[in-house]
Amino acid sequence: MIKSIDDLELKDKRVFVRVDFNVPLDADGSITDDTRINAALPTIRKLSEAGAKVVLASHLGRPKGAKVPSMSLAPVAPVLAQRIGLPVLFLDDCVGEKIENAVSSMVSGQIALLDNLRFYPGETDNDPVFAQSLAKLADVYVNDAFGTAHRAHASTHGVAELIPDRAAGYLIQKELEFLGQKTESPDRPFIVILGGAKVSDKITVIDRLLDKADTIIIGGGMAYTFALANGKTVGDSLCEPDKVDLARQAIKKAEEKGVKFMLPVDYLVTNSLDFGNKTLGDTQVVEGDIPDGWEGVDAGPKTTQLYAEEVSRAKTVLWNGPMGVFEIEGSSKGTFAVAKAVAEGDALSIIGGGDSVKAIKQSGYSDQVTFMSTGGGASLEFLEGKELPGVAVLDQ
Prior knowledge:
396 residues; six-stranded parallel beta sheet; elongated
């Protein structure tokens, strides 16, 4: 049984909250996307209002156990203070006597932000000594960082084991509800849209969801591996010839289970893709085989229409992975058409983290979906049915 922060005695307690403030920064150190900060606000606000001394901890980037000034969490504090409408005390380290004293002298309701946990190698090594230093700052442990819940790090696992009073924040609760309960017993039809580059990344998810879904729609780079499995040629398209057997097994399992398994019927292809400069060479739409020298970069117009029609009849939609190279305008139509269909339908819509969230934001429909996961790798592993260490450790 995982407790909620609503179940805890919080007044005057020092509450160590693992948040995910791994936000993108530009060259000047300004935050370019504050989604993750906003996602943590309900939990932080609740703890502060309940009179807790709120100690926020996060990583940023990959400093690899060294203090890298450009990866300090300092720029997050003023943005967080502005969003939450309360002062935020920034502490320029995350362990040690100076930090312990600063936390001890906090008043009830006050919010402090520690500096980057990954400035210490003990964080990613889940080092017990480092976990103990973090535990000295806390009477209560709360995890609200779903994006790192699939990693057994000191702040997501080690420290939680040392603090008996522990709970999930509102964000993790929401993730477990939508990616868990709502896909376990969905309102039907339950339609799953899977895109992205590789079959190998998604094959376990496909296998799991074939037991639950009414329709599975395949797009993105992995569609070309399925095309190979169906005896088509794919030109220079991204594909995994060594995963063709897995693709065939998935098609066969769908048939046996009576799950509608939709693959592209046409593709937008190009003879030159320059991702760095965001340009395409010549493009054409092809059905069937893709000629040599050409590579698929998006779902074609017929496919896009079929997919949008199928999505429109859903009662529950789970979408993970784009339909093509949506970062380039010329090959973004398929992904954005799916985004539009998901947003405009009546279904409960769950966007499964990573590039799908980026795509739905870029399409302008992000405020019309039910739930956007904050976890990339974590949401995939959770959908695969893997145990997430950062969630499992919360279970009393």
